[in-house]
Amino acid sequence: MKMKTVRLGVVIALLFGVFFNDVDAQLSGRLPVFNEIPTLDLAVGYSKTTNLVFPYEIKSVDRGSKSLLAQKAKGVENVLLVKAGQVDFAETNLSVITGDGRLYSFRVVYAENPSLLNLSFQPDSVPAFAAWPERVPAKIDGVLVNDDILHADADHAKHAATFLNKRTKENKVAAALHSIYVKDKVMWFSLELQNYSLLDYEPAFIRFFLKDKKKAKRTAQQETELYPVYQEKSLSVAGNKSLTTTIGLPQFTIPADQQLVIQIGEHNNSRLLELTIKGGVILKTRLLRP
């Protein structure tokens, strides 16, 4: 009787082993292969600022704890200033995504006197980074973060065929929407700015927002700001000249009771232009083909 029990146990164990090995093999065949992203150790202090210099514009910063302070340097898009918000904070982490789609991961600890205050991640200054994955497909709001690709797509959309002519004109300056294209969930708006005066037209901002068509009595009008993923840094239209700029926004549609407003203006809202776009125009968006 004991011999039969032992044999039965061996058979059951073998069957379970075969079953789980087969399941493991099937699962391993379906599992994706991941590239490990290195995590770097970073020590920061309370009375000293640590400067991180990246090769591309900083797109996103996430702090693991409010005890860690981090902000971009004023007027510089690729330098991050980091310091402790309190003394002896618990170990935390810091994640930075840059314009080339790369993710930088840091394990951050407190140090009263950090030995290293300036770190550069430029490829020519940090040979060790050559071993990192060439590109991490990082996304923000579902849109791929890659300045090189966005720049190429913006230029492509700028020179693509025009099929719209929505215009507005005030104070001897005008704006016209000539086309809307979409690629990889980014909508590209091609705007022509025209200056009919002798004074240079230098827009300080170009805003996109959704706005209620009609304002109900005793209710505030609702506005939803739309933030570009790509936009030229500065624009200047010389007297009696024109230029075309292309702006990329995350893909969107317009509710039936709202409309899109494109607002362009100089400092202090001087020479302000407003271009109103209905939902039906957005639905005419074309695919940006290679």
List the topology elements.
Blueprint: H1 2-30, E1 39-44, E2 50-53, E3 58-63, E4 68-72, E5 79-84, E6 92-98, E7 103-110, E8 118-120, E9 139-140, E10 143-144, H2 147-158, E11 166-170, E12 173-183, E13 186-195, E14 205-212, E15 223-226, E16 242-250, E17 258-265, E18 273-277, H3 279-282, E19 286-287
Parallel strand pairs: 1-7, 2-8, 12-19
Antiparallel strand pairs: 2-5, 3-6, 4-5, 6-7, 9-10, 11-12, 12-13, 13-16, 14-15, 14-17, 17-18
Pfam family, one: DUF4138
Protein name: Conjugative transposon protein TraN
Organism: Filimonas effusa
Query: Which topology of the largest domain does CATH recognise?
Result: Immunoglobulin-like
Low-confidence stretches: 2-6, 10-16, 127-133
Q: Estimate the helix proportion, in percent.
A: 10-25%
N-to-C series of helices and strands: HEEEEEEEEEEHEEEEEEEEHE
Rounded Rg: 27 Å
Query: Number of DSSP strands?
Result: 19
Q: Helical element count?
A: 3
CATH class of the largest domain: Mainly Beta
Mean pLDDT over the residues: 83
